[in-house]
Design a protein that fits this description.
The structure is a single chain. The protein is mainly alpha-helical and 239 residues long. It folds into three domains: 76 residues, Rossmann fold (3-Layer(aba) Sandwich), CATH 3.40.50.2300; 59 residues, Homeodomain-like (Arc Repressor Mutant, subunit A), CATH 1.10.10.60; 74 residues, Arc Repressor Mutant, subunit A, CATH 1.10.10.60. Helices cover 55% and strands 6% of the residues. A three-stranded parallel β-sheet has the order 1-2-3, covered by helices on one side. β2, α2 and β3 form a beta-alpha-beta unit. α7 packs across α8 and α11 packs antiparallel against α13. It is globular and about 55 Å long. The termini are far apart.
Length: 239
Amino acid sequence: MNAHQRPDMICMHYDRPDTLSLNLLIAVKRAAPSIPITMLTMQHSEDLAVWAFRSGVWDYLVLPLVQSERNRYLSALRELCHLRSDTGTSNQKRLLTRTVDLPESVRLTADHQKQQPLRDAIQYIELHYKEHIEQKELAERCGMTPFRFSRVFKQTYGIGFLEFIQRKRMEKAEDLLNNSEMPITSIAYAVGFLDPSYFARAFKQHFGCCPSEYRRGEPNPPPPSRSLVLRESRPAQSL
């Protein structure tokens, strides 16, 4: 299959999933690891959904679809197709956004309530993670002093905001490696790194392998300690 014939999405429909049909999904994913898979099923369980996402499924849909879920999926699929067909320069590349409303059971939890004061900062990071972001600017958006913002952020997420941004960049880079044909150098620029070699080092510290090995699906060793990532995330040119 050449590049012009490669599908943007593989959809696998299940009435009642069984061992044979689920093993087929794994075989398809192994044969075409860069092509996302949507699993549609009429028989749903929490265990099945967890299995699906652990197997690398891009989206998991329970049939019949309600209208809001159908609209969400089609919107995400259109954006994915546009991303994968984009052949412009790296400056024209944009990342896939899959923002969805949280379920009521999550919105009412204590953890979610604890995150509310930082909501504006997180939303800003989502939109500007590839740019240099000052702690003072985020603190002002949340109506806090820089000291209090730093303390609340660490208490809420368990990491500082610089490492949070670094992880966000790694997450976006992983998505591009899996769902686009962008060169690795272009991916580095697209997620906010000014130096592709520094991006490669930061990626290896985060995932335990370099970007090219990750894209090829090669096995990787356990990643080093997170303290290395923190030290690497401090230079101004990377943030």
